[in-house]
Amino acid sequence: MLRARDLPALPVAAGGRLIGALHESDLMALVAVADAPAAARESRVGQVARPFGLVVTEDHPVAAVAEFFRGSPDPMVAVVAADGRYLGLLLRRDVLAAIAGEPLAPPVAGLATPFGVHLTTGAIRSGAGDLALVGTGVSLLVISVLANGMLYGIGRLLQHLFPVPPGTAIPPLGQEEQLALGLVVYGLQVAGFLLLLRLSPLSGVHAAEHMVVHAIEEGEDLTPEKVRAMPRVHPRCGTNLMALLILLLIAQEFFSGVSKMDEASRAFALFVLMLIVIVTWRRLGAGLQRWVTTKRPSARQLGQAITVGQRLLEQIRAHPGARASMARRIWNTGFVQVLAGFVALSLLVDPVAPVVGRLWSQISGAP
User: Fold this and answer.
1) Residues 210, 299, 313, CA angle at the centre, nearest 5°?
2) In angstroms, rounded to a whole number, what is the distance separating the alpha carbons of residues 301 and 115?
3) Domain boundary at 99, 117, 144, which?
4) pLDDT per residue over 325-365, tens digit each?
5) In terms of Cα–Cα distance, which of 72, 18, 74 is closest to 45?
6) Sheet hosting strand 116-120, strand order edge to edge
7) Which domain holds residue 217?
8) What is the pLDDT of residues 95-119, one digit of tens each?
9) Which residue of 6, 30, 84, 169 has the smallest Cβ count within 10 Å?
10) Could you tell me if 149 and 61 lie in one domain?
11) Dist CA 260 CA 245 (whole Å)
């Protein structure tokens, strides 16, 4: 973690309260013992962490922190709220940037659209406009419809290859069979959607967006070399929410299949399902990002994302400390526009779907 975050030490907290920091030298001390691997496995962070040299509240003067750094070898200062909640760290470079008038970038959110990257701090936005965001919702619904159509086509092909003889009595499915069939069909629908999403240009744009956001948050220069070295997985990606939704829907499907159990068994099954969801949804989200919703961006996709990131930083410098209302911040995230595009096209697709189904039946001769 020290290597990945490029920090001199890692803050250690419990229950939102700061305990101390784990330094590289603290880890190196474990190497000096006779059985270093065993010592590392048995030790816990709380046993090794040491207190911060300085802990300040968020309204503490920057000049006072600079004076502390001038007379102390400590690499960082902890920042807490008035009630003691841990808020973050101040490094020497952060203090120098503030004194030089180079404001630190606030947390950046983003979206991938068919027309390029959209980035925002909530108050400031850059890149793809509202129509492009609406187009993202449209494209996601198109991918979903194509995935369902692909599944339907595979089903029709299997019916053609393995026809059921006329007059054959098909026994009704039991509860377990219905549950298994429902999970299989749902899994195939999700798999088809993710496969088409992976093959679409959106996955490359999505990766470029993540890499630029990482570079901005790490304070790196937005050059192709620096940005391409950034990871494609981001902890605040909406894919994590999609993973949570997938797990919840699977859990709902499974739980509806065991609804005839007694009350104690249902309660235990619900507990196990929720435990599985809580433990796995972030891991599933990271896996989906790595293998499905992002792929190595092209030079053009990366260049466009870098340009959007540079424009965002220019606006941040021009409007330091910019604020916006909650409604404006929600609008700037782009999710409202994406949802509008998705819903608008779905309202158009619903009346057309039965007509297409009847036309297909006439062409194929199927009921």
Assistant:
1) 50
2) 10
3) 99
4) 999 999 999 999 999 999 998 888 766 555 555 555 555 44
5) 18
6) 109-113, 116-120, 125-127
7) 109-232+294-364
8) 888 887 765 667 899 999 999 999 9
9) 169
10) no
11) 24
